[in-house]
Amino acid sequence: MVEKGSVSGFYKGNSSMNSSMNSSKISTPQINTPKLDFVFYGGCPSLDLFNTLRRRKDPQHVTEDLLLQQDGLKKWLLKAQHRSGWAELLPPLHPNARNAVVSKDLQTQAIQLRSIIERLLAKDFVPEDIHTLNQMAQLKPYWQLSIEDGVLVTKHNLELESVLGLIAEDCMQLFSSNLCEKIKECAHERCGIVFLDRSNGSKRNWCSMKECGNRAKASRFAQKD
Prior knowledge:
- With 225 residues, the chain is mainly α.
- The chain has one domain (15-224): Jann2411-like fold (Orthogonal Bundle), CATH 1.10.3300.10.
- It has 9 helices and 6 strands.
- A two-stranded antiparallel sheet has the order 1-2.
- Helix 1 (15-26) packs antiparallel against helix 6 (104-121), helix 6 runs parallel beside helix 8 (160-175) and helix 7 (127-137) packs across helix 8 (160-175).
- The protein is globular and about 65 Å long.
């Protein structure tokens, strides 16, 4: 049995966890108006993207895929730029991308990338996944320096496709380093959010003390009464 709040078992070959991961990738619910919002507890782009699949382990509710809503990927990025440390460093999304509707092809690519992350977490990836990551990573954002009227200016290419490149590169760096050993799953049995535990002594148990941590406290108090 995987100990909740410990190094997640993603890297300990836990069969029950791998089975849960594999089953969740088979069928994705078609949900257009999610009741839940995006969360940014993962600590890096790839885990935050993975966490767009909400209630993944909750038997009392239907899993919600937040990327399937209208402009889901764009809404995720715009919120990330206000609520996550890694996205705050990105330049603004290009006006054309901000105003355009997210295409079905781009939505499919984002979900494909999330599925690869899911298989990497479950240690169930295939060689084609590695090839796809390498291809996607080439789309990562870049800056260009130019001179306009004698003044140095910088321009960027932050389109939604380049955001997928950023996530792919982050995924490659995460799973090819010892940092992957710090990936945990929230200790709440019905949560399923994953995150990087960078706390002192690796003692973080919850995706958020404000949410699952408080729920656990309330449950303990209720049991005492």
